[in-house]
Design brief:
Blueprint: H1 3-20, H2 39-42, H3 46-52, E1 59-62, E2 71-76, E3 87-92, E4 97-102, E5 105-110, H4 117-124, H5 134-149, E6 157-162, E7 165-170, H6 187-198, H7 202-205
Parallel strand pairs: 1-7
Antiparallel strand pairs: 2-5, 3-4, 4-5, 6-7
Helix pairs in contact: 1-3, 5-6
Length: 239
């Protein structure tokens, strides 16, 4: 699929859900508590709204770190026999990340103007094409979300129009700063992310203090294959 088209498609899901939360109360028991997302919150996503306009107006993207103003990675995921668990969606609206598992397709996206594309390609490409178990895809999602949390830059963008074409330019992420573009996270932080994605306990995601468990690789470093032969991925006997 064309990556620009894919970007608009997943961004429409992310932004559309965000927009819907403008009209949903934070707590139904307390209508006066306000809505989940405020109008002021939506103003932070003006650039994302502008990118969405590329589906209706000619727009040309230009940047060094990526081919599109987002970091998007697509994976092959084993499809559960149980239809109730064939779909999963998670997002982090603060750090602008999205996780989508739909049947045999898994999509990870960070709407970061392409900041994770280069480093992410180096890491995620090892697992693209491998038949991932949903648990393994969840671990990859935790990695993308954590990387977004330690992003140390505010992308600089220039938008102009020439000959009825909108030119959307993203300046180099490093800029004039000598600080790393991405910081580091602790094992405890990753443990929280893994618990969020997998629903596992702390003891399962960090069996040894300071070290996170992994479901992606075997002890010898080879890619791990996990069969879909246990609940909730398969149907109970007799169904």
């Amino acid at each position: 699929m064309n990556r620009e088209r894919l970007m608009v498609w997943v961004l429409k899901i992310f932004y559309g859900l965000l927009y819907r939360e403008l009209f949903l109360t934070l707590d139904r028991r307390e209508p006066g508590a306000g809505n989940i997302v405020s109008v002021e919150d939506m103003e932070q996503y003006q650039l994302l709204h502008l990118i969405l306009q590329s589906c209706r107006v000619p727009m040309q993207f230009s940047m060094m770190e990526s081919d599109i103003p987002a970091s998007i990675f697509v994976f092959n995921v084993q499809e559960p026999e149980n239809v109730d668990v064939r779909f999963d969606y998670k997002d982090d609206i603060v750090n602008r990340t999205m996780y989508l598992r739909l049947g045999q397709v898994g999509i990870l996206a960070a709407f970061d103007m392409g900041a994770q594309t280069f480093v992410g390609t180096d890491f995620f490409s090892r697992y693209q094409g491998h038949p991932l178990h949903p648990v393994q895809f969840g671990e990859l999602g935790a990695n993308l979300f954590m990387k977004a949390r330690v992003f140390n830059r505010t992308p600089k963008v220039m938008v102009g129009e020439y000959s009825q074409v909108v030119n959307f330019t993203v300046f180099p992420m490093a800029g004039l700063s000598s600080a790393p573009v991405f910081g580091v996270w602790t094992a405890e932080d990753m443990a929280e992310a893994l618990m969020f994605f997998l629903g596992y306990s702390l003891e399962e995601v960090m069996p040894v203090e300071g070290r996170n468990a992994t479901w992606l690789e075997n002890r010898d470093g080879s890619l791990r294959f996990i069969p879909m032969d246990a609940a909730p991925w398969i149907l109970p006997p007799g169904i």
